[in-house]
Automatic annotation (TrEMBL):
<feature type="active site" description="Nucleophile">
    <location>
        <position position="19"/>
    </location>
</feature>
<dbReference type="GO" id="GO:0004044">
    <property type="term" value="F:amidophosphoribosyltransferase activity"/>
</dbReference>
<feature type="binding site">
    <location>
        <position position="256"/>
    </location>
    <ligand>
        <name>[4Fe-4S] cluster</name>
    </ligand>
</feature>
<dbReference type="InterPro" id="IPR029057">
    <property type="entry name" value="PRTase-like"/>
</dbReference>
<keyword id="KW-0808">Transferase</keyword>
<dbReference type="InterPro" id="IPR029055">
    <property type="entry name" value="Ntn_hydrolases_N"/>
</dbReference>
<keyword id="KW-0411">Iron-sulfur</keyword>
<keyword id="KW-0408">Iron</keyword>
<keyword id="KW-0460">Magnesium</keyword>
<dbReference type="InterPro" id="IPR017932">
    <property type="entry name" value="GATase_2_dom"/>
</dbReference>
<dbReference type="GO" id="GO:0051536">
    <property type="term" value="F:iron-sulfur cluster binding"/>
</dbReference>
<keyword id="KW-0328">Glycosyltransferase</keyword>
<dbReference type="InterPro" id="IPR000836">
    <property type="entry name" value="PRTase_dom"/>
</dbReference>
<dbReference type="GO" id="GO:0009113">
    <property type="term" value="P:purine nucleobase biosynthetic process"/>
</dbReference>
<keyword id="KW-0658">Purine biosynthesis</keyword>
<comment type="similarity">
    <text>In the C-terminal section; belongs to the purine/pyrimidine phosphoribosyltransferase family.</text>
</comment>
<dbReference type="InterPro" id="IPR005854">
    <property type="entry name" value="PurF"/>
</dbReference>
Amino acid sequence: MISPFNNDDDHDDKPREECGVVGIYNDPEASRLCYLALHALQHRGQEGAGIVAATRDGVLNSVTGVGLVSEVFNESKLNQLPGSHAIGHVRYSTAGQSMLKNVQPFVADYMHGRVGVAHNGNLVNYERLRRELEENGSIFGTSSDTEVVLHLIAVSKKRPLIARIVEACEKLKGAYSMVFITEDKLVAVRDPYGFRPLVMGRRSNGAIVFASETCALDLIEATYEREVMPGEVLVVDKKDGVQSYCLSQHPEPKSCIFEHIYFSMPNSIVFGMSVYESRRMFGEILATEAGVDCDVVIPVPDSGVVAALGYAEKAGVPFQQGLIRSHYVGRTFIEPSQGIRDFGVKLKLAPVRAVLEGKRVVVVDDSIVRGTTALKIVRLLKEAGAIEVHMRIASPPIIASCYYGVDTPNSEELISNRMNVEEIREFIGCDSLAFLSFDSLKKMLGGNSGGFCYACFSGKYPVAPNGNVNKVVDFVDDGLNGSIQSIDGGWLQGSEDQGQDLNHEEDN
Ligand code: AMP
């Protein structure tokens, strides 16, 4: 896992993605627990972090900042967040945008009080909603789609606040797992398709916790109770405890399968399934369906590790660490002026000659996006003495961009949208290449397979995007990739089947 999509910090082994949210109700240390939970969710966003906490007399205090959780918060910042309920957010964002004002949670005053919100996902009708609101006089302070939610709540005529939140959410299209905070309540909402995860847990003192992933519950010793169901609105307050409401749409859920392939931590339970178990199975399936004679199986750390373990076990071949990932590479690095080929990858992944020399190597990664990381990894392995390199990818080919909160480049940049498997193999220079087949993935999910969104593999979108959808990020090169055209063998240019039409799943 080398992220091609940002100015990667690599203080850790984790993927870079979208956002993470947390909410805590009725714990004297709510903001501290939020802070810890955000650490556990740091892999979901490294560009900014924030917490809003409500004091006993109903004041919402907020601390937000650009950077990692450890950079944004310290003892004195947390001391500014007293109160027994709080929400938090880690954000993955665009480098180019003015950053601080887009860091969540957002807080707003409306006629009857104050409300804060933290959102994971991406709204596909944001532009239209924003235009309508602006035509009616709303003034926006950020370029984030989340802000429309606050405006919709403010303009709603409904009472009480929960009815305003429900009315606002029913106007939203796309992906949203959100937590709201008010003077005396915590509210968790998941969109009717359940694109992004959101779970509920409870601490031994009775405090209720909402979080994007269960790894956040584990850290703060909250027991996982259940998912917030797609289309569910959970309201927590002192008077009524936890109450569940439903948004009016009831489509079949479409949870993001990429959470299992790449985003979520392997120690999380996501959509009711262990991420570790899914990835191990992906590896096993690859070994069964696309096995090849080899001496050693190695992962691309860290996102390929569990699938590689599954592959090695099934194939009965030793699992080795043929690539060592550096955990200490900073956000930016200065390259020598004469240039070193594949510098970014080399800085982060070091091949182990003792594992690779003279060996036929199977290397497992979670996905191929633009194909440039794989190309560099194959080159590294061969330079370190591997006599054969067989690449196995624990997901189907990604052919379409995501509109529901995943940072994928535009379809034209996705190598599997431009080339078939043999062409990709030739481009990345490996001896064989195989992807997890789409059918096998669905077969593995069994009876649950209808409940997932596969738009990135099929181009069939459960919710059609309206107009120009602001994706979660604009592509930011981290020096690992260079543009496809500038990579050796730039013969890729001008492939004919670029620019897929957006298919609406229901039309297909
Ligand atoms: P690429 O060089 O564009 O093919 O990138 C492939 C690598 O990007 C794989 O090693 C994945 O682990 C990683 N990856 C996949 N999806 C994402 C994502 N949404 N954000 C960041 N990195 C990703």
